Amino acid sequence: MTPAAFHVEAADYATRQALLHGVRRAVFVDEQQVPAALESDDLDPLSHHVLALDADGHAIGTGRLTPQHRIGRMAVLAGWRGKGVGEALLQALVAEAARRGWGEVTLHAQVHARDFYARNGFLPEGAPFTEAGIVHQTMRRRMDGAMRVQDADQAEAAMATVIHRARRRLLLGCRGGDTALLAQPAVLQALRHFATRRHDKQALVLLHDGEPAAMPTALLALLQRLPTVFALRLPADPGDPSLAPASVINDNGDCYFRPMGDRFEGELCLDMPAPARQQDALFQRAWDAATVCEGFRTLGI
């Protein structure tokens, strides 16, 4: 299928507020039943806005960056969802924050969209809360260094974003509960997205449990469906403490690594080629010394 034609541009609020509010009213007020009085606020004239336009110049999506370093009012018309509009809007806002020299940005994600933000580098913080009658989750992305990963929810988000941002090469060093983590919704969706792209790609998976029975059903089904994409190996001595730490590395300068291996605590590095290269080298050494997972051969993997 040919991607739908649209583009994202900065929008001066004084001259284009009718387009911005038109999209926001359609999504928030008409569709989600948010009170009309909450759709706009005093931050609108002070914020940086972006607008997605279709090939005919019709507004199809919006978003803003407030002086409080917060992304918000992300809205895409129903007929344009799932076509990359939201991601393009989000990337434009993150790029603007980076251009301004901001170290981080936050947002309040509606819980149904939490996986979307996780795939784009935002880690959840704290418990969900209700805002405008809708359950939200605070999420944060740093742009001036590594992000600390401290719990299962953040681990899922970190793994998802490294996989989602991969181009053609992905390295997965699995330890502890990683196979279960790889089957979590945001991670599995990112894996499917990577594995089903049209261009050539390869995912090297270093397992510390070579038995198919230890693999979650959804993940095993993906490996069987696309055996030419995924290569699996087992360390010669899985208990060797000198092996590379658990890690996910892509060819885009991103990595999430956990020094403790079987714990979630670690660091997510986005657009940081130096640590990504270091983790890549550790993984490659472990991969070269590893053996084929015989238990998966009978399944065609």
Automatic annotation (TrEMBL):
Domain N-acetyltransferase intervals: 8-144
Keywords noted in UniProt: Acyltransferase, Transferase
Stored InterPro entries: Acyl_CoA_acyltransferase, Bact_Acetyltransf, DUF7931, GNAT_dom
Pfam families the UniProt entry points to: Acetyltransf_10, DUF7931
Molecular function (Gene Ontology), one example: acyltransferase activity, transferring groups other than amino-acyl groups
PROSITE patterns given in the database record: GNAT
UniProt entry tagged with the keyword Oxidoreductase: no
Listed name of the protein: Acetyltransferase
Organism whose genome encodes this protein: Stenotrophomonas acidaminiphila
